[in-house]
Amino acid sequence: MCEAKKMTTPHLTTTAPVGENQFAGIANVIGVIDRGGDVIAPGAFVDALDGFLRKGFVGLSHDWDALPIAMPDAAEERAGGLCVSGTFHSTRAAQAARSVVRERLDRGLQVGLSIGFRADAADCVGFRSGADLLVYTRREGLTSLDEAGIADWRAPCRLVLRVAELFEVSIVAVPMNPGSQVFEAKSPRLLLAELEANVMRMRISRIWRPGFQPGCLD
Question: Which pLDDT score is estimated for 66?
């Protein structure tokens, strides 16, 4: 059964500063298997992005009881990644989070992003292993997947074909998927193009460590 789930994606190391009061990155890398055994299919976010930009928020560590720390400015699924950018609120907590992000990036440290979403059971398919998932995706003609990484997964897993609601993006400490770096604030179109190129570089370098099993952390 598919339920609301929080999935985490790291940024790659970078020394580029975050734009003035803004952040941008890849909130979810599509087509790879995460530490919980989920694979988000290409196109899964299409129906959820308008609602996220109207009603969604950027939080800290998935704390839904606290006020948001930032507002989403742009969100777009491109070339295997959910690209997002946002503007920090003026509250003390939001500005403290912004300072931590900038300080960590200035030191070449990772900053994680994570999503909170809901997927309906009808839009999820479960499998006994990554190999079984690949049999299904090849039969259905699904492409743009990290087939090598998925094939190495020997535990139960599932394919999420459609995200019904994207509630939030959070800045988090512990990442789950490979991700992308943070850029300076630029126009949304230029920013998303750069993020897209970075996802492609990540896919080629295959940062994801194959065979990672649930219940373990890097």
Answer: 97
Structure tokens at 123: 């839009």
Over range 183-207, report the average pLDDT: 50
Task: Report residue 27 as tokens.
Answer: 């909130």
How far apart, in whole angstroms, are the C-alpha atoms of residue 10 and residue 41?
19
**Residue 196: pLDDT band by 50, 70, 90 thresholds?**
low
* Local structure of 84: helix, strand or coil: strand
Instruction: State the Cα–Cα distance between residues 217 and 10, nearest whole angstrom.
Output: 13
Are 139 and 200 within 8 A, CB to CB?
no
Element (DSSP H or E) covering residue 74: strand 70-78
For the chain, the residue count is 218
Place of tokens 């339920």: 3
pLDDT of residue 11: 39
**DSSP 3-state of 121:** helix
Which two structure tokens, joined as six digits, stand for 35?
């530490």
In angstroms, the CA 163 to CA 88 distance is 25
Distance in angstroms (rounded) separating the CA atoms of residues 71 and 209? 32
Instruction: Give 79 or 27, the one with higher predicted confidence.
Output: 27
| Alpha-helical segments (H) within the chain | 49-55, 92-106, 130-140, 147-151, 188-205
Beta bridge partner(s), residue 112? 10, 172
**Measured in whole angstroms, how far is the alpha carbon of residue 213 from the centre of its chain?**
19
What is the value of pTM for the model shown? 0.78
Say which residue, 205 or 112, is predicted with more confidence.
112
Amino acid, res. 60: L
